[in-house]
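Note to self: user wants both folds in one dump. Writing first protein now.
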Amino acid sequence: MTGYEPLNTLKPVGEDIWIIDGPEIRFYGLPFPTRCTVVRLRSGGLWVHSPTLLTNTLRAEIDALGSVDHLVAPNWIHYASIPEWQAAYPKARAWAAPGVVERAESQGRSITFDQELWAGPNLPWLGQIDQMIVEGSTVHREAVFFHTASKTLILTDLIENFEPRKVRWYLRPVFRLVGIADPDGKMPRDMRMTFRKNRDQLREAVETMIGWGPEQVIVSHGRWYQDNAVEELRRAFRFVL
């Protein structure tokens, strides 16, 4: 149980955009609920961000929406389920944020990616999903996205917002300590430290996100923000603004 049941099923959050709440995964031995985002492009193809567990039931739901054209690993941590989606959808292109390939290799994972997620004029979702690589960290380079039609900002780990009542009891003090407990979820303290020498780059990225004018913010871990998106961004990133 993750507190975000039902799991492994599409949940609409706007026109042509859905989330999938996946099962708990373990990172450094700790269980985390996680979340995938699916966008249907104008072509009818599907763009899948941070894929989670692909069950037979979920696959039937996905197939009813359209063809899976793009699989996105948005940072060096969120790539684990890419291979099972590739097996199910061999024609899909797999996109990796900077650092993903190296991380997978260091973990003994052999994953084939078609292209790295650099912003550029040839992205097939140009004009539908804006994209930026957040720079400035010595470790963490995350691709963030803005679905223009639904005004939805899609983040991964730059904000984590775990609801204490929905996580294991022994994680609650840990999440409060590292600053990722709802209602004041934000960037984990250890990640924040990796930006300490390049805070200006992080500030510029946050200002760009705010400038996109999002109305909601999807995050991969914990409660996501269905309204007051700009206010939540200013709150979560107040340490750098």
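First done. Writing the second protein, which came from a different request thread.
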Amino acid sequence: MSAGRESSDTATAPAEAARFRTLYGRRQGKKLRPGQQGLLETLLPKLLVPAAHSLDPRDHAAPLDLPALFGRAMPGGYWLEVGFGSGEHLVWQAERNPDVGLIGCEPYINGIAKCLAQITRGGVQNVRLFDNDARFVMAALPPASLDRVFVLFPDPWPKARHQKRRFVCRANLDRLAGLMLPGAELRLATDDPVHLPWMLEQTCLHPAFDWLAEGPADWRQRPADWPPTRYEQKMLAGRRPTFLRFRRR
């Protein structure tokens, strides 16, 4: 995976590489079934977001044309999901919000294949996918273009030396703030008791976001339009997830 623009300037290349850290684990799990592989070869190219594998906006010839990406202007606006897993939440939202264009980013190939199968079964037309780091899409999006962003159960990177790999951090929140319209909503979720205070600290101290919680129920209870994912059903093992909602000022 490219970490940015290739440059002959040896003074800037190490600094650029140092700024890029992989925020996810493995790219592929068990061998795909023939049907899944077929979807990757036939459907994914039709839905793929044409973003360069670079964090530098200068590497993107022009910001993404979102109406062109979806074949029409979406009256409900555009939403981004960072790390959609197997796509349950992404497809659920797309089915119930057909006037919204949803962009889902996920580097895990097996998850992408499962998401494509759900898109096919549901006949969903308003989803586009990116099969790599969401930050590459964030570098390609036009400013003030997103009405909602989801970051659900990102890898907590629990070891202290890995904290710089956490997606929810000042640098990424800065990027999201520039991409989100005033009043847009940022939704975060975690089940990790160490990651939770980190997420709250990073987001509550950011000048662009207001936490929407007014009481404990606002983060303990799942909102009606926030479906459970396969990860929650299989992996939480009794742990209680926390649901966080923030508004872009």
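Dump finished. Worth passing along: Residues 27-248 form a domain with the Rossmann fold fold (CATH 3.40.50.150).
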